[in-house]
Amino acid sequence: MITIRECDDYEAAKNLILEYSQIKGAEACFVSLDRELADLAGFYKDGALLLGYDEGNPVATIAIKKINDDRAEAKRLYVKPECRGKGYARPMLNAMLDKCRELKFKEVRFTTKPAVMSIGYALYQKMGFEELENDEETVLMRMKLD
Length: 146
Hints:
31% of the residues lie in helices and 33% in strands. It is of the alpha+beta class. The protein has a single domain, classed as 3-Layer(aba) Sandwich (Aminopeptidase).
């Protein structure tokens, strides 16, 4: 079972994000990684950084970056390989959506690479995210929030 809370351990978050950045094919998702990791709290100011814990160990992350007063970008959904298949991604996404609503965003967007993250992409579609753009390698998706 996963427990999700706002980041209280930036070193753990940094390690998870660094692990994620090593996924083959995902390199293009990390263009500002050094700046992001240098100040995670500042980078996600007015948004949030959430960590998922399994038996007290940090195993998942997802972040919310404010774009403007109405729109946020979801970033860094990552579940450690040894914890995949346990159903942790959906609760992480739901926690992110709940936090976006709490922060009064009307829409959340994110980009994904279906060829690299096909399981995540299928989950996003099942959860009701819609495609806005698809350039064959990178897909921009969104969900309007009530």
